[in-house]
């Protein structure tokens, strides 16, 4: 080997170890950067040179690459754990809000108000002629109805907030997907010979992928040319430099509106199971379910109590009464969808009592409600009004879809009993509550102004308490409208369901956090910067650099000696 070759060996060593010191310095500088992946200078011997037959001499050292220490499979598992953890945290946060709406640990929770309401009916049954006890029933009923409406409004507020959050998260996913597409372009350009290294760009892309995983469960595939394709389920989100985008959409189903995610590129539905977006989307359906349960509970309370109350009598009768329920098609059968009643009556009958105040004489008329679906003569609001108007002393009319009944003179008052069809409750005649669900439940206004109309009796006698006793027993009695469950049992099941779901979300969040910490520790061992290790590397490359400098110095001295001899 000539002195020139020896000089080149030293020169290559100086350059390579200088670059290696730069890589080590960069690692040290990014020791606190969570998005940084440790880099290693891959140093290989230079190609051997032929000296003489059988003798090959090394030509120095080469820097082949500066490599990121990364396990792509581990990165994918970390992204999955991030998605699962964020979905669980979102569920825990929003279910906590739902649980706070019901606030079952307070003194004025709904179960307490419901029990207080039914207890007041029990107290009225003990003294049905007491006006004060009637006012207590009406006040407790008004408080209960107000609490139910308040809870329904709060849940509707949560639903609205979730919808806004879904739109915001979808926009964030879209923005992050565009960043990945842009970084794909930059990485391909850098790794195809442009100035600069792609390692930092790849770190940036991995950081964006982790942020994207917080929002939605994705899978990333490095296709080998510097591009990463990102998929949601089996549908692509990013293909090379193209961001296909996502959008929040709604569609009508038999159960109401369905909210889902779709690709902006082709409109195809996306299968999302975790991440903040997946957790929020799933939670939207769960909270819709809670709202539906509360509506069903309130609807059963309204209809079942009204069925009892509409067949009962108060201390005085009605001189005029207007139904609270509106019939959309007055010529349609009352139990048909065209009628549009909140509760469907059945085939049966009820009795109308016409009482003369001056004489005390009472005439009773049985009114048939034909809803058997046979003979094409089912009872409509028009036919029912005609049948009621034919009763002596009764005037019946229809005003904007509502049945209106009135006494023909001031000496007449009306009462009702024995309604086996439920038509009075469905139409809102002589009822306690108005409305159809938790959103509009309320105590009938004329009852609050005239407590004597409150029905406690069943046989028309002032001292009778059969209706009051029947209503007092409703809280714990199995109801057909609730599938054999009681009001109390259904409410407790709903509250327990929310509490169990919240507890499960908390457990899932803790489990996901533990998995994420384990995976992060594995990544840190491989990709994280150890200052102790970098200090050792720095000393090693420093010594190698110093050694190379000594080699060059020695060769320089030899060359000077050689020149001086000439």
Characterization of the model:
With 566 residues, this protein is an alpha+beta fold. It is 51% helix and 17% strand. The protein is built from twelve helices and 18 strands. The protein has helices spanning 3-29, 72-102, 110-126, 131-191, 199-215, 275-310, 381-389, 423-427, 445-449, 466-472, 487-527, 531-564; strands at residues 39-45, 49-52, 55-57, 61-68, 219-222, 228-232, 235-239, 242-243, 246-253, 256-263, 320-322, 348-356, 362-369, 394-399, 402-407, 412-417, 433-434, 442-443. The strands form seven sheets. A four-stranded antiparallel beta sheet has the order 5-6-7-8. It starts with a helix and ends with a helix.
State the gist of this model.
The chain has 566 residues and is α+β, with helices and mostly antiparallel strands.
Element string (H = helix, E = strand):
HEEEEHHHHEEEEEEHEEEHEEEHEEHHHH
Q: Tally the beta strands.
A: 18
Strand order of the largest sheet: 5-6-7-8
Shape: rod-shaped
Structural class: alpha+beta
Q: What is the gyration radius calculated from CA atoms?
A: 40 Å
Binned strand content:
15-25%
Report the average pLDDT across residues. 89
* Fraction of helical residues: 40-55%
Weakly predicted, low-confidence segments: none
**Number of helical stretches of at least 4 residues:** 12
Tell me the distance between the termini: 20 Å
| Most strands sheet | 4 strands, antiparallel
